[in-house]
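Reviewer 2 asked us to include a model.

Predict the structure of this chain.
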Amino acid sequence: MTAEIQIGDRVQMKKPHPCGSDTWVIYRVGADIGIRCTGCERHVMLARTEFFRRLKRVIKGNQGA
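Predicted model (C-alpha cells):
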C-alpha cells in the first residue's frame, strides 16, 4: 500500500496503542514516518516500510478533530 500521506493526516493502525487509541496524527514524513497518538500524545517514529505494513486506513486532513 502506497497511500499518499501528508503532515496532519489522521491514520488508523491495525493494532491499538496500549492507551486504547488506534488513531494517530502524522507529524513527520520522510524515510521515517513520525506519528503522534491521539489518546495519550505519545510520539513514535516508524520506518516507512513498517508504517505501511501496520497501516489500516488513512483519514485525510483533520476530519473528526
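The two ends are 25 Å apart (CA to CA). DSSP finds one helix and five strands in the chain. We have added this to the supplementary material.
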